[in-house]
Amino acid sequence: MARERKRLAGYDDYDDGTLRKPRKKGGFLKKFIIALGVIVVLFAVIIVAGLFIGDGLLKSNFGISLFDMFGAFGDLGHYDRDKIVTNGYGDDDVNGFYTAANDMLYFKSGDGEAVINSEYVKELASEAGSND
Question: Rounded to an integer, what distance in angstroms lies between the CA atom of residue 16 and that of residue 27?
Fold first, then answer.
């Protein structure tokens, strides 16, 4: 009398009586898709965290938000031609600026002459640029 073999869990019999382990369906493809999904999520988390860290650093050091900078760069392409200044400033504009600055800062010399003028600003700039 031939002894009957016990059937092992998870194995199928061939016709000739040998055992084989069944193939998993989509084994490699499933693992590849899962790994790809994990990598994409990991990169997304790193990018979002980097944006928020960069935003915090810019706010603390320069007082401007990273998202405000992105908005400003985005607005460079959306300009209104009617609002672009085509004529430069003239001598009347310069004199008006210095007069307004003196009036606002209450700078007047003893004889009523303006203290801040273009010569004064040029002198300050040259002193600031010198290595003395």
Answer: 27
What pairs with residue 114 in β-bridges? 108
- pTM of this prediction? 0.41
Kindly give, in sequence order, each residue whose CB lies less than 8 Å from that of residue 21, ignoring residues fewer than 6 positions away. Answer: 10, 11
Q: Please, how many CA atoms are within 13 Å of residue 113, restricted to the half-sphere of its CB?
A: 5
pLDDT in tens, the chain (132 residues): 556 656 555 556 565 656 666 666 667 888 999 999 999 999 999 999 999 998 889 899 988 888 888 888 888 888 777 777 777 777 788 777 777 777 777 666 555 566 666 677 777 777 777 665
